[in-house]
Write a structure and sequence with these properties.
With 503 residues, the chain is an alpha+beta fold. It contains 12 helices and 21 strands. It has helices spanning 2-32, 37-63, 68-97, 118-121, 158-164, 223-228, 282-289, 303-319, 374-378, 390-398, 408-424, 434-448, and strands spanning 107-108, 135-137, 140-142, 145-147, 155-157, 169-176, 182-195, 203-210, 245-247, 258-262, 265-270, 273-278, 291-292, 295-296, 351-354, 357-360, 365-367, 454-456, 469-476, 481-490, 496-502. Strands 1, 4, 5, 6, 7, 8 and 9 form a 7-stranded mixed sheet that branches. It has a 4-stranded antiparallel sheet with strand order 15-16-17-18, with no helix packed on it. α1 runs parallel beside α3 (68-97), α2 packs antiparallel against α3 and α3 (68-97) runs parallel beside α5 (158-164). The model is unreliable at 101-106, 110-139, 335-349 and 380-384 (pLDDT under 50).
């Protein structure tokens, strides 16, 4: 059965390849005969459809192959088909360029910004320069340009070259595939006029045309980065757009300039404007990811790292007029001689409340201080009449703040209890029936026992013989559903330790 399916899939792929070959030859004839623009576009569309069909048939066929060496051979075959398709696509796009505007306006490069940790953690790649994508500002086309000193040649998107009305010369480019195999494709080489905004000097960049340089580059908010580097008065932008022009090391002079550095961020004044690269500072990352209301929570490996981090945070927040009230740590961060700087050294109580959770810095554990007036619930012989109503139960339940889920098993009971009150049909200030009052009293009595429970802040111990295992459990009923996560780890002594993560 498998052999028959493999044979059928291979036949279907061969048929798809034949269709692609015929479409390629037909497109080549259209180009040779210099047919009208619309005919060439239709031929290119048919070629694209044929290639997409071949990709689908090849994927189906390759999934049926069990032999690894045969799989590699077939992947190489598909790579050749792809390069043949790209060469024909490039030829057609170059031909279509001739129908566009003939005027040549220089690409204008805005002041730029990049970084080295990807689109979420930083602002680009090492030696990169993000400039706004092709657009019209005061009738001047603008580009998203990448300075990459790891590239041996400079390249430009075919669409960008067409938008500028550039006339290139025919050239051949050799592509080295995985395994060292070389493939030559025909394309164009352009002379691209480039300038920086507010600078009249023009630069000529020799670039090879290709269909695509990169996918969409994520936009980055650069105001705080510019402020850290003292570049508030500079025009530094990087919106969301693909890369239009990549300038490699073949234009080394474009990568030079005066530099300045703050932490892990570096700014360089290149001929095309400011380039910013590097990763965000640890302080910025903590403020972005670990700030909750008026609390800043973080964890580092050493006292020295903690001293540096708290100092950087003081500096960043102080620049905005925010003074840190004090720092709490399970290690002493500074000596008593400089205590007036604002650090909070515990001399009495060893507990600090963060986000409704109590942290004992000596044992390095989280715990709770449940505040329920149990005598008020039990003792009804007081001077004034006290009723247990829906309003008071909601008020008590709302006082428990549990962002991690330590007391999730109790909070869900309180929520179910509130649902039952509405099902009974009580108004806000109606006194609860005796049996319902007993349930609420029992719940809060049990919750008081949470004062005796602690959870380790450090989930994974260092230098353990095995990687920890994540265990997740969930359950559901007609009233509610819940899930909780634990981490299980083998210790140096050969035993196992289980720590609660969240619920």
């Amino acid at each position: 059965m498998v052999e028959d399916a493999l044979k059928t899939a291979k036949t279907e792929r061969r048929t798809a390849k034949g269709t692609l070959t015929r479409c390629g030859k037909f497109l080549a004839k259209l180009l040779e005969a210099k047919r009208p623009e619309q005919e060439v576009r239709d031929g290119l569309s048919k070629l694209q459809l044929a290639f997409d069909n071949l990709v689908a048939k090849h994927d189906h066929y390759s999934r049926l192959i069990e032999d690894d060496s045969e799989f590699e051979v077939q992947e190489g075959w598909m790579a050749d088909c792809q390069e043949d398709f790209m060469s024909k696509e490039i030829g057609a796009k170059i031909y279509l360029d001739s129908f566009l505007s003939k005027g040549k306006a220089p690409l204008q490069a805005h002041d730029t910004s990049t970084a080295s940790k990807g689109k979420n953690n930083g602002v680009g790649g090492p030696g990169s320069s993000g400039i706004p994508s092709i657009q019209i500002e005061d009738d001047v086309p603008c580009s998203n340009t990448l300075l990459d000193w790891g590239a041996q040649i400079s390249i430009i998107r075919d669409e960008t070259a067409a938008a500028l009305g550039l006339k290139g010369n025919d050239t051949e480019v050799t592509i080295i595939k995985v395994g060292g195999e070389e493939k030559t494709i025909k394309t164009k080489v352009y002379k691209v006029p480039v300038s920086a905004p507010d600078i009249t000097k023009m630069f000529s960049i020799k670039a090879i045309g290709i269909p695509c340089i990169s996918e969409e580059v994520a936009a980055v908010q650069l105001k705080p980065i510019a402020k850290l580097l003292g570049l508030e008065n500079e025009r530094i932008r990087r919106p969301n757009s693909p890369v239009d022009l990549l300038i490699g090391i073949d234009h080394a002079q474009m990568h030079t300039g005066q530099t300045r550095q703050t932490g892990q961020l570096v700014a360089r004044k290149t001929p095309l404007g400011q380039v910013v690269f590097g990763g965000p500072s640890e302080a910025a990352e903590v403020l972005t990811k670990n700030s909750y209301m008026d609390d800043i929570c973080g964890s580092v490996d050493t006292v020295m790292q903690a001293q540096k981090l708290t100092g950087d945070l003081d500096k960043v927040l102080g620049g905005g007029g925010f003074a840190v009230k004090g720092w709490t740590s399970n290690k002493v961060l500074i000596n008593t001689e400089v205590q007036e700087r604002g650090f909070k050294i515990f001399q009495g109580e060893v507990q600090e409340k963060m986000l409704g959770v109590v942290w004992n810095y000596v044992t390095d554990e989280f715990s709770f201080k449940v505040k329920v007036d149990l005598p008020l619930l039990k003792n009804r012989s007081v001077d004034r009449e006290i009723k247990m109503t829906t309003r008071t139960r909601l008020s008590e339940a709302a006082r428990f703040y549990d962002p991690i889920g330590f007391e999730a098993a109790f909070i869900i009971r309180a929520r179910i209890g509130l649902q039952e009150l509405w099902q009974i049909g009580l108004n806000w200030d109606d006194e609860l029936p005796c049996e319902v009052q007993q349930k609420w009293t029992q719940l809060f009595e049990e919750m008081k026992e949470l004062d005796q429970i602690g959870f380790k802040r450090c989930l994974v111990s260092p230098k353990t013989p095995e990687f920890p295992a994540l265990c997740v459990f969930s359950d559901a009923s007609q009233e509610a559903f819940e899930a909780c996560a634990y981490i299980r780890q083998k210790t140096k002594q050969g035993t196992y330790e289980v720590n609660f993560i969240a619920a």
